[in-house]
Specification:
The structure holds 2 protein chains of 2 kinds.
Chain A (H helix, E strand, L loop, with lengths): L1 H26 L9 E16 L3 E7 L6 E9 L4 E7 L2 E8 L3 E14 L22 H14 L4 H14 L4 H7 L5 H14 L4 E8 L4 E4 L2 E7 L4 E4 L12 E6 L5 E4 L1 E16 H11 L3 H4 L7 H10 L1 H16 L8 H12 L1 H24 L4 H25 L13 H41 L2 H9 L3 H12 L7 H6 L8
Antiparallel strand pairs in A: 1-6, 1-13, 2-5, 2-12, 3-6, 4-5, 7-9, 7-11, 8-13, 9-10
Helix pairs in contact in A: 1-15, 2-3, 2-4, 8-14, 9-10, 9-13, 9-15, 10-11, 10-13, 11-12, 11-13, 12-13
Chain B lengths: L1 H9 L13 H6 L5 H12 L5 H5 L1 H10 L7 E5 L8 H7 L3 E5 L9 E3 L1 E3 L2 E3 L5 E2 L1 H12 L12 E5 L17 E7 L2 E9 L15 E5 L6 E6 L2 E3 L17 H15 L3 E9 L3 E8 L5 H6 L4 H8 L8 H9 L4
Antiparallel strand pairs in B: 1-7, 2-3, 2-7, 4-5, 5-6, 8-9, 8-13, 9-10, 10-11, 11-12, 13-14
Helix pairs in contact in B: 8-11
Classes of the chains: A alpha+beta, B alpha+beta.
């Protein structure tokens, strides 16, 4: 019965823990090693202009909804301009302002994007547009083109595609040639298409996007035309008619260009430059989970303030260290001072690094023990004696720090952070064991504690493990399950196999 | 002092099988009980936690034993507070052959033996003479919790000093030889004699180097001995054989162990008994977590007896019946 309950709980804890971890790895894409990285692009928009001595107001469109991509961060470099960034509809714009500026001014906007499958839809639902006014001879030509196109298409998508296709190819058609004369650049073509589609009562808008190329300077934004089919926005290349936003374009702005406007300044010039780099997958996963609706994703330690994160990454390693102690004591049978003293020593080693930790620990405990044995002769009562040891430990630490700083061994100064209470407790525990159970037991337990502490230190300072515990605190459930299971381990300890080695059956 | 200790540890004669290990399957087959199994299958199952204070506090144990008509060394006096130490001298005037013990001591620690008084000084068994102030400090250390687990404030008590039965004279070095009986469900299942050595500093504690000698449950004769974990046939200090010694009052010893188990209510219990020259067997203390060395001393695992008694529905109620059951166990 009891064993059944134990199996139930430990299997439950372990499997729930592993299931959550699997969900986080496979669904949320949290990496299982800390250094997995992914591609990112940093796009910099540089807006340069000349102030003419009046109040300046410069507005720059910045990306807001970016299908296929996610913004990981963004920076505005404003110099001495006042900055105001706000979202209006589906667009976002930064407005810089300054009183009476003269001469060349440069403002920067920088954003880092990465590929992302998280969808954010455009929210704007357009009205049907008023038909624009064309004058003859264009009016007839336009009407004819719309009519022809309509007869060759079935819906908004095919209509738009057909229209772009006709504008591109039909050289013999004089109506087309006439209308095409209105537009030379992509922007003008887009504008023309907007007008033509408006005649057909199809809502349209322009879409400006930046092509991602590695180490590209002076990239110009590309305009696309979007048509609303009553359900969603369809995107077309104004020249080729290709449907959809190509997957190496990052949407910058929805609506009419240009991407910036200036008041009180002239000679405005906007340049884009792009660099490719790599970031930690973890940052990305963190970003993804923030954006996704997974409750488990929201319960992440990465959302804590950085200083709490550091504390927690240490705290989360303590159960791992404790598990080591459980294994060493129940399976191996190594004797230690108390259950958790080795973990405390291991945490203390984090401050000093392992080798120096062992040397200093041994030295201080040794000297402390000698003094403790002398205090014993002075017949001091327990509590004052403990306090006296504590004072002596602090003095020893002071002495070591002072000596090492004089010798120029700066790294040893970290001894000052070495938790002295742990040392004092170890000395006291060791000397009591020494008296009660003899020198041998005391030394065995002392070395056992040190050994387990070293193991604990190696495990607890393992960066990958630390990362795993932090990214997947669900491992605590797994550890809990293992502990419950271990709690019913009734087999022999390795030390018992040694102890009973001379055992001869008398049967 | 420290150097001596270190020396004695490092210079221990290496065992011939220093790095060999027992095969766990063979141990299992021989019914050897391991610590993990002892803790989870026996101590946790048969020993109620709330009964522990009865055995951890030797004063309570003594009182229980007196109530149950079990012979114990006579209690002279109890010291609970430091101010009681002012009257220590007059207390010691009445008895100058006595033992001072902490109520919560373990493993024979913190025990001070006084064998007489010479002038103003008190004599210890080693012949050292100590002053009343030394004794006072010693007791105040006990009171401050120096020998209790976790350093909890303790009380001290003064009791009759055992006059040892001559049976162990040839095979003990100073100190107190005692008999450890393991009692399960009120039936003794294993026994050993613990003989102090020079290494154990006169203490009957196997961890500190005392010899454990197995005892035949039926006859009360000693069998093999172990020092540490190593089998031995002779006492390392006196050189006398430790095998085939007949323990006197064997039936009575088994009866005391059985009664102790009833009195204290622990299902898995270690009973420590000493033999007095005139008073016979006296119960010294009880242990709720007895060690496993008794298996080494007897070269016999505990599991077969434990399992045999575990599957018995009804354990006889009469003490004599249970003693008889115990004596039939390893046949």
């Amino acid at each position: 019965m009891q064993n059944l309950a134990i199996r139930f709980w430990s299997i439950l804890f372990i499997s729930v823990g592993l299931a959550i971890i699997a969900h986080k790895v496979f669904q949320l894409g949290i990496p299982i090693t800390p250094d997995t990285s992914t591609q990112t692009w940093t796009i910099q928009a540089q807006l340069a202009f000349k102030g003419n001595g009046r109040n300046i107001k410069a507005t720059l469109s910045v990306p807001n909804i970016t299908p296929g991509f996610a913004k990981i961060d963004e920076h505005f470099i404003s110099g001495d301009f006042g900055l105001n960034a706000n979202t209006k509809g589906d667009n976002k714009a930064a407005t810089w302002a300054k009183r009476k500026a003269k001469g060349s001014q440069t403002l920067y906007y920088r954003t880092t994007v990465t590929r992302s499958s998280i969808e954010r839809k455009w929210s704007t639902i357009p009205k049907y547009p008023e038909a624009p006014t064309f004058f003859e001879p264009y009016l007839t030509a336009v009407n004819k083109i719309i009519e022809d196109t309509r007869s060759q298409s079935a819906d908004t998508e095919t209509f738009t595609f057909e229209l772009i296709d006709q504008l591109r190819n039909s050289d013999e058609n004089e109506n087309i040639s006439l209308v095409r004369g209105l537009a030379r650049t992509d922007a003008q073509v887009a504008e023309l298409l907007t007008k033509l589609l408006a005649v057909a009562h199809i809502p349209t808008r322009e879409l400006w996007a930046i092509k991602l190329e590695d180490s590209a300077n002076n990239v110009q934004p590309q305009v696309f035309i979007q048509a609303y089919n009553g359900d969603e926005w369809l995107t077309f290349h104004p020249r080729t008619g290709a449907i959809g936003i190509p997957d190496d374009y990052v949407v910058w702005k929805i609506g009419r260009g240009p991407l910036f406007s200036l008041q009180g300044a002239n000679d405005g010039e906007l340049r884009f430059s792009i660099t490719k780099s790599y970031i930690n997958l973890l940052e990305l996963a963190q970003f993804n989970t923030e954006k996704s609706n997974s409750l488990l994703g929201k319960l992440t330690l990465f959302s804590l303030p950085v200083n709490s994160q550091i504390t927690y990454s240490l705290i989360l390693m303590v159960p791992v260290g404790a598990l080591i102690v459980v294994f060493m004591r129940t399976l191996i049978g190594i004797q230690t001072f108390g259950t958790f003293m080795p973990i405390l020593i291991a945490i203390a080693f984090r401050e000093t690094q392992l080798l120096w930790g062992i040397v200093l620990f041994t030295a201080i405990v040794f000297v402390g023990l000698l003094i403790r044995l002398y205090l014993e002769r002075l017949r001091l009562l327990l509590i004052p004696r403990l306090t006296a040891i504590l004072v002596i430990v602090v003095m020893l630490m002071l002495l070591i720090s002072f000596q090492t700083s004089q010798l120029g061994l700066d790294r040893l100064l970290s001894i000052s952070l070495f938790p002295m209470v742990i040392l004092a407790m170890t000395i006291e525990r060791m000397s009591i064991t020494w008296e009660e159970n003899g020198a041998q037991t005391a030394l065995i337990q002392g070395l056992g504690s040190l050994l387990v502490a070293c193991l604990g230190y190696l495990v607890m300072t393992n960066k990958n493990l630390e990362y795993l515990m932090f990214a997947f605190p669900e491992f605590l459930l797994v550890i809990l399950g293992i502990c419950i299971w271990m709690g019913r381990y009734t087999g022999y300890r390795v030390s018992e196999l040694f102890r009973f080695r001379d055992f001869k059956s008398s049967t | 002092m420290l150097v001596n200790y270190l020396g004695s540890v490092i210079l221990r004669v290496p065992h011939k099988n220093m790095l060999s290990f027992a095969n766990p399957f063979v141990l299992k087959k021989q019914g050897v009980l391991g610590i993990n199994q002892r803790n989870s299958d026996y101590i946790m199952r048969y020993n109620k936690r709330k009964l522990y204070p009865l055995v951890d506090d030797k004063l309570q144990t003594k009182q229980l034993a007196i109530n149950a008509d079990i012979a114990v060394p006579k209690l002279y006096s109890t010291i609970k507070f430091n101010h009681q130490l002012k009257n220590l001298e007059s207390l010691l005037q009445e008895y100058n052959d006595l033992v001072i013990k902490p109520a919560h001591g373990s493993g024979g620690n913190g025990i001070l033996v006084l064998t007489g008084k010479i002038g103003k000084l008190y004599k210890t068994p080693s012949g050292e003479l100590i002053s009343i102030n030394t004794i006072r400090h010693y007791i105040s250390n006990i009171l401050s919790g120096m020998y209790s687990l976790g350093g909890i404030p303790d009380s001290a008590f003064l009791e009759y000093r055992i006059q040892f039965d001559p049976v162990f004279d040839d095979v003990s070095f100073k100190g107190v030889p005692d008999i450890r009986i393991i009692v399960f469900r009120g039936v003794p299942i294993s026994a050993m004699v613990r003989l102090p050595t020079s290494e154990s500093n006169g203490k009957a504690n196997l961890h500190q180097g005392a010899i454990g000698v197995g005892v035949n449950l039926k006859s009360g004769k000693t069998t093999h001995g172990v020092v540490g974990n190593t089998i031995t046939t002779h006492h390392p200090d006196t050189g006398h054989s430790i095998e085939h010694l007949q323990l006197p009052y064997w039936d009575k010893i088994l009866q005391i162990a059985t009664k102790c188990s009833d009195t204290v209510g622990l299902g898995y219990l270690g009973v420590d008994i000493v033999l007095d020259r005139t008073l016979g067997p006296l119960m010294l203390e009880l242990n709720a977590r007895p060690g496993l060395n008794v298996q080494l001393a007897n070269q016999l695992g505990l599991l077969s007896n434990l399992k045999y008694l575990e599957q018995m529905d009804q354990i006889p109620t009469m003490v004599d019946q249970r003693v008889a059951l115990a004596q039939s166990l390893n046949e």
